[in-house]
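new request in #modeling-help
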Amino acid sequence: DQQVKQNSPSLSVQEGRISILNCDYTNSMFDYFLWYKKYPAEGPTFLISISSIKDKNEDGRFTVFLNKSAKHLSLHIVPSQPGDSAVYFCAASVAGSARQLTFGSGTQLTVLP
Amino acid sequence: DAGITQSPRHKVTETGTPVTLRCHQTENHRYMYWYRQDPGHGLRLIHYSYGVKDTDKGEVSDGYSVSRSKTEDFLLTLESATSSQTSVYFCAISERDSRLHGYTFGSGTRLTVV
């Protein structure tokens, strides 16, 4: 039973355009959501996060939107650059002593020059 | 990331043999985690630690054990490796306030069980 789902295994976008990566979740107890980026042969790196009390968080070219009623979040990258080509993981956290993260299956983003 | 090191980076082992993966951190973070990454599954939590000698099971803990005798080291042991444990294993560290900044991951260990 996947509590965090990324239904698109891959996405291709032209350089300079917007990339939109989507994530759905089922556990209403999640209170923080995070996006990670992963290049081949490297560990995932933290990109951006959002608290469940907010509906938007922005950091440079990256914006995360949260729709709690739909249990849906999305990551927008504007403008997309070839260096953004990577696997993007959505993750969610429930309040607790160890702050375990539950990850989605990832979306491979390819930005075409 | 310089603050977290995994060893070995690659390993091939035979079915039925014991294997130990090591995670070493220099950040003095309290929390440490072992995840495995498999196609179609993303990252799944195996075990985690919230302090020296304090560990607990994650989502996919069967066939794995862990130990943390020092703050800086978190060991993952496959007692008797099986082909289903072929995967990429990631260690991660965090502080208590990781909600907004998440974990720091190591570079991973690619394990192949033949």
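bot summary: Chain B has a mean pLDDT of 93.
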